């Protein structure tokens, strides 16, 4: 359970810029992560060892979501476009009929190493190849693939630190990286229209309902719109505003299991972006909504995850994630998804 916090801590990743961490740096960072993940479960990471910045990432998201709806729908998962082959990787449109408090469109990629469709027929194929817009209309495929690889390497370094913080050798969890199912997801939350800011009961209007993430950990790039909130132990929603240059990190359910409950997968949600302001806006996204780019760090489908602490049972990751998937809006059966109202940027 998360503790009663009122803001999120900041961890400086500058030491990770060198190829090899010194013993004392490993000890200091793993202690920091151990403390943060057993209290807030969420933190800001600054000075991450990545070759790209926020601006480059969000330029990619803007380029993708500005594509005509028809072109995005060509990349839709089969549940949204039955003639398409992909079931897991690709585009999902907003679903206003199913979930007005979960209004988001997204585009997801996995590892470029999954280049062939597995022979085993399954309703949802977790290790299927990615799909892409054609290169004439979308220039950022190789950039996104590189972002994926760099985020995977960063997450793997953090995993070693988590192993140490649980009293294990740095490579204790390295087998999880085999055929990793990590997902890089571009998300767009459209802005509300005027008058839609509140639900009929006057509670806050959300565009992502409260949930915990399912995997090992999540590395989130968010734009400056704001809206992410994190639940503390007193039941209060604590705002996690944009901190320039930072990545938000949080623990997923799997790591709670592995740590025997020591690490906390904290509930979080996103408030719906405000309608276009009437004054001259400072925000480049004004009226278009919010962009965020979570990277979900995940083990391979067949990976058997054995808890490092406590007496919990081992889980096979593929089974764990398929169980959780039934709660995700983009995997609900729905015939009323929105394929025609995306504004051009
Ligand atoms: O958009 C955000 O800030 C958070 C997204 C999120 O929590 C998720 O996709 O799991
Ligand atoms: Fe999340």
Automatic annotation (TrEMBL):
Domain (Fe2OG dioxygenase) ranges: 179-299
InterPro entries: DIOX_N (IPR026992), IPNS-like_FE2OG_OXY (IPR044861), IPNS-like_sf (IPR027443), Iron_ascorbate_oxido_reductase (IPR050231), Oxoglu/Fe-dep_dioxygenase_dom (IPR005123)
One GO term of the biological process aspect: small molecule biosynthetic process
Transferase found in the keyword field: no
Recorded GO MF terms: metal ion binding; oxidoreductase activity
Alphabetized UniProt keyword annotations: Iron, Metal-binding, Oxidoreductase
Superkingdom of this protein's organism: Eukaryota
Family matches, as Gene3D superfamilies: B-lactam Antibiotic, Isopenicillin N Synthase, Chain (2.60.120.330)
Family: Belongs to the iron/ascorbate-dependent oxidoreductase family.
Protein name per the record: Oxidoreductase
Species of origin: Lophiostoma macrostomum CBS 122681
């Amino acid at each position: 359970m998360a503790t009663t916090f009122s803001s999120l801590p900041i961890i400086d990743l500058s030491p990770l810029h060198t190829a090899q961490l010194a013993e004392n740096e490993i000890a200091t960072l793993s202690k920091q992560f151990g403390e943060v993940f057993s209290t807030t479960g969420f933190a800001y990471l600054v000075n991450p060892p990545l070759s790209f910045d926020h601006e480059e990432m969000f330029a990619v998201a803007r380029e993708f979501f500005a594509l005509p709806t028809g072109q995005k729908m060509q990349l839709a998962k089969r549940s949204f476009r039955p003639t398409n082959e992909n079931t897991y990787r690709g585009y999902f449109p907003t679903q206003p009929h199913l979930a007005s408090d979960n209004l988001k469109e997204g585009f997801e990629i996995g590892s470029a190493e999954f280049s062939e469709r597995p022979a085993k027929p399954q309703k949802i194929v977790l290790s299927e190849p990615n799909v892409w817009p054609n290169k004439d209309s979308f220039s950022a495929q190789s950039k996104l693939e590189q972002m994926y690889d760099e985020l995977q390497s960063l997450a793997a370094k953090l995993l070693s630190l988590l192993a140490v913080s649980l009293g294990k050798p740095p490579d204790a969890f390295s087998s999880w990286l085999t055929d990793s199912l990590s997902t890089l997801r571009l998300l767009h939350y459209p802005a509300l229209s005027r008058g839609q800011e509140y639900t009929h009961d006057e509670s806050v209007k959300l565009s992502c309902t409260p949930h915990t993430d399912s995997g090992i950990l999540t590395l989130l790039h968010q734009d400056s719109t704001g809206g992410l909130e994190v639940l503390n132990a007193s039941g209060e929603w604590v705002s996690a505003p944009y901190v320039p240059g930072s990545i938000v990190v949080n623990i997923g359910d799997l790591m709670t299991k592995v740590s025997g409950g020591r690490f906390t997968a904290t509930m979080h949600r996103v408030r719906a972006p405000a309608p276009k302001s009437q004054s001259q806006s400072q925000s480049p996204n004004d009226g278009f909504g919010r962009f965020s780019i979570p990277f979900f760090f995940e083990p391979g489908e067949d990976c058997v995850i054995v808890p490092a602490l406590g007496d919990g049972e081992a889980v096979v990751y593929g089974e764990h994630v398929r169980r959780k998937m039934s709660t995700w809006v983009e995997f609900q059966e729905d015939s009323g998804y929105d394929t025609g109202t995306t504004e051009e940027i």
